[in-house]
Amino acid sequence: MASGSPLLWPRVLLFGDSITQFSFQQGGWGASLADMLVRKCDVLNRGFSGYNTRWAKIILPRLVRKGSGLDSPVAVTIFFGANDSALKDENPKQHVPLEEFAANLRSMVRYLQSVDVPEGRLILITPPPLCEAAWAQECLQQGCKLNRLNSVVGEYARACLQVAQDCGAEALDLWTLMQKDGQDFSSYLSDGLHLSPKGNEFVFSHLWPLIEKKVSSLPFLLPYWRDIAEARPELSLLGDGDH
């Protein structure tokens, strides 16, 4: 049986906490990316609910290794801070001090550079704003006190932007965009912390232009069905896969 060379499917890597893990749910921002990139890229969801940058930094080398240049992701989102910014007194397990948070992000960017994922392929995403009233209700149901504050989340968002600027990576400042012009951002969140369907739409609409720039030169993989040679389909199907 004739076989062409293996088809290399470029990859987009989504690395983050629950806001990334849940992004493949129906209407999720990750699912929307995967839909836009079908037959161009595989979108890999590497979101870990509850994780902070201290833990993320440890697992990143297990997720991305140095391979041939063709293996390395064409784009990577790094989306942490919602757990790091938890208040130390109320949630010491997830809390990561601000300076360490910034250092961890820097360290992850440096690691990716060392395995041939240059900063031009990276997008650092700030945590979204926190709706304290809704999250307080959630905490109450879990039997704990309010363990996050929007003003504190804002400090982590600014640190994320600073790291992106220092490293030459792109940034998506959700914390600022969702609160722009003093708008009520609570409808973007399902429980004050995680994204609602409207919030997922918002993230996708702002993230897609950044991703699209990084993948615009990638071909559509394998020919359109009308273009396949009828008499000898293998001539169309065992080429280089670029269409």
TrEMBL record:
- Per the record, the coiled-coil ranges are none
Gene3D superfamilies linked to this entry:
SGNH hydrolase
Q: Which GO terms describe its molecular function?
A: hydrolase activity, acting on ester bonds
Q: Name one Pfam family in it.
A: Lipase_GDSL
Q: What InterPro entries does the database record attribute to this sequence?
A: GDSL, Iah1-like, SGNH_hydro_sf
Q: Which family does the record claim for this protein? A: Belongs to the 'GDSL' lipolytic enzyme family. IAH1 subfamily.
Known role:
Probable lipase.
Task: Spell out the protein name for this chain.
Answer: Isoamyl acetate-hydrolyzing esterase 1 homolog
Q: Which organism is it from?
A: Odocoileus virginianus
